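Annotators were shown the component list below and the corresponding predicted structure, then asked to write short factual statements about the assembly.
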Amino acid sequence: MKKSCAEIIIEELHNQGTEYIFGLPGGAAIPLFDAIVDSPIKLILTRHEQGATHMADGYARATGKAGVVLVTSGPGATNTVTGMLTAQMDSVPLIVLCGQQTTWNLGLDAFQEADVSGISYPVVKHSYLLKEPQTVRRVVQEAFYLAQSGRPGVVLIDVPKNISSTEIAIDSQEEFDIPGYQVHDEPNLNDIEQAVQLIDNAERPLLLVGHGAVLAGAGNSVAFLAEKIAAPVTNTLLGKGCFSETNPLSLGMLGMHGTAYANLAVKECDLIISIGSRWDDRIVGNTEKFCPTAKKIHIDIDPAEFNKCVAMDCTILGDARLVVEKIGALAARKNVSNSWLKKINGWKRRYPLKYRKGGGLKAQHVIEELFLQTKGNAIVTADVGQHQMWAAQFYRVQHRFHWITTGGAGTMGFGMPAAIGAQFAKPKACVIAIVGDGGFQMTLSELSTAIINSLPIKIVIINNKYLGMVRQWQHLFYNNRLSGVDLEGNPDFVKLGESYGCRSIRIRRSADVRRKVADMLAYHDGPCLMDVEVEKEDNVYPMIPAGASYEEMIIEKPSSKEAPALAKPQGST
Amino acid sequence: MDRHALSLTVNNRPGVLIRIALVFSRRGFNIDSLVVSESSTPQFSKMNIVAFGDQRSGEQIKKQLSKLVDVIHVAEHTETDSVQRELALYKMLVTSERRPELLQLANAFGAKIIEVGEEHIILELSGTTREIDNATQLLRSQGLCELIRTGKVVMALGAGET
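Structure shown to annotators:
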């Protein structure tokens, strides 16, 4: 029996466990869209290709399985570039299938032709341009293997229209052809022993969990190790969900806008163990002055991350769960009532995260209320900026895959489509997108996608009518010379939501927060948008200025109304 | 800043070279020379890349190259653990009176005389980078009008793979 390559591709996607394809068609992708008609895979039509990539990304982050995107050639494909960068920077498994012009038109500037695999190189783990019909099944299989194994990432498959239309009689099983790709799951025992020795000798150990720990499912082994060696646990922005932030040993997030107690622990620990975190500049600040007296251990599945930003005393290559399990089995038990934990608890009492409930409406108030009413069990997505940092601070995540945000890339417009993807993945879960008024407007057309699929996502727009994080920097470091941050001309978000047929609520007063949040959470018939008109000029604290050392942390809002005269951050953005 | 001589075994496919070049350019390394050729197995190519940059970025580049799915193997070699050679062609503009002097000089380097014309001579020289550099230096004052070098090719000493 003959099958078209498009049918083989879609069939293989199904074999690989694909439930949904997020995408938008065009001429070069018609054979692939045609093949979906007879497939059990559900096609989710989006309004823009960037939205499709963020949905597939949200789906992947909510399940750990690869998300799948299907778009057409040329601009359809280039619109996925931001989404690919977003997923790749955060090690999210994503498969992007693009239609392409016919092979004989490649390089001839034919209609909607672009060198998409060429454009993709810097933002993918690997990419394919299909030219041989008999390779298509193998390529799809390899793509899933590459995307989901080792350090996950993005794989792009560019499918010329004449290839997808070709019918082939023999659909032979080809062997994988990736001799340059190895996954190192099993750690070296000497490295484990070296780490155990460092742990046994440490008096003030600190665990730092990142996205790698979440992806590896290292939660239980991290909890066991933390309890055994009486180590507090801090997490990166993307590490939320590995170790419950409501656990007494949790310090919440560290870094630029991390909790004061997490950052003080980083400053004073004598051993820091990174489990699947890559010592990003938002965490390390000044590399010269970062943890100068502490020993450092780095556990990662990607050897290229070792000693990339900060020099390590011990590196362990392997799967985070396996490594931490082995360390946990061998490390000596430490006393929980030791002076290190006492000191940390003192910091927690002295420098809690706080905000003023009186006066204007605060984003923190709404986010904390969301946390309380959902008992920390919702899946929360966020864009990038002030709202994201407040969400990270005040929504204490307890479960793996319950926190979905754009870390490395910091992509505005990510949160709402990612929530759509997460809701498809987890139809029964309460999914809340916390977004800013700026980012929301970048992908708001996907409201249609939420409406037509009756997805009960909650969209909480932290609306301060500013690009708030940039305004905060201009306020703190540029003498409040505001430039390009005023979002004058914002629509009325409630009317906008209603025009899509989306239930929409507005909050202006602190007194209404509890009731209106409850009202939103009780609504399940479709999406619900909440326009939260917050105080315009609030800043996120604590803050370690970019590229600065932990000594320079600003713990809370300076008392004077004047902008503090801070030196412009050097180095990092 | 150091000069790094890297030997790579890579898939022999379109698009591989640009992926490799991107690893260098993203980190601000200038590629001094690049040689790509088929290996003893047609499925793979050998690449020799000489690039200039600091030691830490050099380490990072090796790791990032190894991470590429199309790269099978990366090694950095020094002159003590490998044989490193390049080939140069020189086009010399020379009058018949000065020709004997140039030919004598060429013989002293061990250069091959490829072509002798009315007004020019083409020389071929292979050797270490230093030998080629020295010869080039001397030939500059002898009417050198065109120079092309292959860039370094490297093979590890001993029975092991480069």
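Statements collected:
1. Chain B touches chain A through 20 residues (CB under 8 Å).
2. The helical segments of chain B are 16-26, 55-67, 99-109, 129-140.
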